[in-house]
Amino acid sequence: MSMTIIIQHSLDENIAKKISSKFQVFNTHIRHKIVSANLDDLRQQYQIDFNYLPKLDLSSIQLFVSDMDSTLINIECIDEIADFANIKREVGVITELTMQGKLDFGSSLFKRVSLLKGLSVDVLDKVYTQRLSVSPGGRSLISFFKTKFIKTAIVSGGFTYFTNRLVKDLALDYACANVLSIENNQLTGVTEGLMINAQAKSDFVKALCDKQGWSYSQVIVVGDGVNDLDMMNIAGLSVAYHAKPSVIKHVDIIINFGGLDKIIDLFNQ
Known about the structure:
- With 269 residues, the protein is α/β, with parallel strands linked by helices.
- It folds into two domains: 4-53, no CATH class; 59-266, HAD superfamily/HAD-like (Rossmann fold, 3-Layer(aba) Sandwich).
- The chain is 39% helix and 22% strand.
- It has helices at residues 13-19, 39-46, 68-72, 77-83, 88-99, 105-114, 122-131, 138-147, 160-170, 198-212, 229-234, 245-248, and strands at 4-8, 23-25, 30-34, 50-52, 63-66, 151-159, 174-183, 186-192, 219-223, 237-241, 253-255.
- A seven-stranded mixed β-sheet has the order 8-7-6-5-9-10-11, sandwiched between helices. It has a four-stranded antiparallel β-sheet with strand order 2-3-1-4, covered by helices on one side.
- It is globular, with a radius of gyration of 19 Å.
- It holds the Pfam family Hydrolase.
């Protein structure tokens, strides 16, 4: 009878003893070797994250790719920009429906950006400095990948103003996002150049891998919305981070309770 290794993303041995007698304690987590388990039931019962140990050889990973809004950072930037125009609720509803896959991303972005027309570019700095934080565990995760010589990228349907600053702040290697059009220090209500939608995100990851000579299986992708699924589907390992139900059912790893640093538990630490 084959055994399965399950990662308990917690060091609570009282919980571990209730699950199995065969468990091993690591630096940041516990691993169980059991025949089978219902991970959804375990997650709900103990309110911590559980995942199967990936069969993928993680020592082969070359690239880590993260979505930005509500994944690598704690906010949806466009909603916070809208707050300065007193239309956060209106824009937020559109954002949420888009991330659930109920609205087309392209038309949704066009509509939301158009509502920002006339806002001062100073608002962007205020959002970054006053509203934006790196998600829990995000800095530790990026630092960990650097120790493993794994390249890091942020690929977003958001805006380059924020991805560029995060690249500098976190010393990320690559970034891709939409460009906000600005004239006379005001947002014009449109974006410039290629729209970074689900397909463009996937294309960016593919092109980066092709250029560097990496296999797509050597990539980890983390995201939270349906517009992340295309790039998740090509990756060797896909991670849903506090994600929508429509995303969770399609991924390898689910993080619903902990921070991004729970991804480190997948490696033998």
